Amino acid sequence: MGKINGCLKCLFIFFNVLFLIVGCLLIFVAVKATAVSIQMSTFGGPGVGWIWVITLGVFGISALGIFAACSEKELFLKIFAGFMGIGMIIMLIFGTVVAVLRNSLKQNYESKSKEFVEPIMKDEESRQVLETFQITFKCCGVVSTKDWGTQIPTSCECTDTSRAFGAVTCKPRPVLSSGPALIYAESCSDSIFYLLDIGFKISLGFLFGFAVTALLGLLISILMIHQIRRHDGMGGPSIAMKGY
């Protein structure tokens, strides 16, 4: 009989294998998120460096947990428990930071709109991204139509009032400006914030969910360390725990 309760060991390995698979999926997600972030950074979106840190952390720590349980080595379980404790703290810190960023994002768009608009309108690639965004979400300008000056692009033309969320209204183009006769009345700031807000909510669920998981991993690894010490102290097999 091994040093660790068989049911507890199998359960521990099972969940670490699941998280190892999750780590592989997160690598794919991180690659996709990096490509999207390059475009969304134009509009003040958050970076994805923390996603790569978490992804590699989940993959590496899960592999360590599987090895520690299979080998029943106290040293590796201690290392795993230490990573779980550190990971839980990091997740809580990151979750708090993301929550603060989410709450301040809308205010930044409203109070510092000029700072967001000027870099976008000066960069040709950013302008093309904005035009594509306008066609998709049926809006015009980051903050308002005035962002385009006197030359309103065809991507602002109001030809379809149907949209997945919210009502779409049309208005005449500003006086002394060229472009479509009817343009979208709404700016793109609400749509941009809507997409970023979805990303923030997913991130919050992800971070705090992993914080709880790290706490459970920490408690189970401490329990397994205790069983190994008891086995070594008694010089025989560990006593199966009641209720497991």
TrEMBL record:
It is found in: Membrane. Disulfide bonds join 139-170, 140-156. InterPro entries: Tetraspanin/Peripherin, Tetraspanin_animals, Tetraspanin_EC2_sf. GO terms for cellular component: plasma membrane. The chain crosses the membrane at residues 12-30, 50-68, 75-101, 202-225. Its main location: membrane. It is a multi-pass membrane protein. Pfam families: Tetraspanin. Belongs to the tetraspanin (TM4SF) family. This is Tetraspanin.
